[in-house]
Amino acid sequence: MIRQKSFENHKPTLYLVPTPIGNLSEFPERAIQVLKEVDHIAAEDTRNTIKLLNHFDIHTPMISHHEHNINIAIPKIIDMLKAGENVALVSDAGYPAISDPGAELVKAVIEENFNVVPISGCNAALDALVVSGITPQPFVFYGFLAHDDKTKKKELEANKNITMTTIYYEAPHRIKKTLTLMLQILDDRSIALCRELTKKHEEIIRGHISEILEIVDELKGEMVIVVEGATEVEEEVVFEQSITEHVDEYIAKGMSTKDAIKEVAKIRNLGKNEVYAEYHKK
């Protein structure tokens, strides 16, 4: 489990800075300040980003980070963080790590135990998603679960096979019960519990549900839970025929007994010896 208290440590930080999708006047003051104060800005397209920087009189050096150079850009950014420098990641427009290669960088930075901090303040769900370290897309925003346990259980049961990352909101006095039910119903998945986002006591806790339950009693503030999706399981194929009938069907089509057993074993994903033993019991 990794506990990141964003403003209570002095670790180098990767800031995820959303940029305006059209109207530059919507760019928040905090984002402008961060871009001025960091040591480097990692941009999806430096030619587009320079227009934004010029508009706000930002002169921070830029490096390129896009889908075609991540094998070079990610180690370079990690080296900057190791050297004690702070880096801001921006995309051409909108949230970094959604519909661009930022997610790979976020995971690499988390593995090196540096801070990853969202700069937005307007949308807790997306802020939590991009810094979670969990695959950011596709995702489902669920919001608040029901307050009563019976309905909450039904909701989680209905959601347990969702293979997409799921985002929930929760209040501090219900978080322990909610995580306990998640552990029972969803199994011990990886989650990110993000609390007090963008505030002084911002904390992002990344780990398995069981790990976070161990420290949940000390947690306060409004919370966002980002839950990894279910592992996709292939549906079991149900055969109407018995193994013996299946083998006899292929023998009737002209196959030898040996080849029919081999074919049935392949189709049913069984060992040949298992099919042979079952067939010769008759």
Question: How would you explain this protein's 3D organization?
Answer:
This protein folds into 3 domains: 1-120, 3-Layer(aba) Sandwich (Cobalt-precorrin-4 Transmethylase, domain 1), CATH 3.40.1010; 122-232, Methyltransferase, Cobalt-precorrin-4 Transmethylase, Domain 2, CATH 3.30.950.10; 243-279. The protein is built from 11 helices and 11 strands. It has helices at residues 29-37, 46-55, 70-82, 102-111, 124-131, 149-159, 175-186, 209-213, 243-252, 257-268, 272-279; strands at residues 2-5, 13-16, 40-43, 62-64, 87-90, 115-118, 139-144, 165-170, 190-195, 203-208, 223-227. It has a 6-stranded mixed sheet with strand order 1-10-9-11-8-7. It has a 5-stranded parallel sheet with strand order 4-3-5-2-6. Helix 6 (149-159) packs across helix 7 (175-186). It is elongated, with a radius of gyration of 26 Å. Catalyzes the 2'-O-methylation of the ribose of cytidine 1402 (C1402) in 16S rRNA.
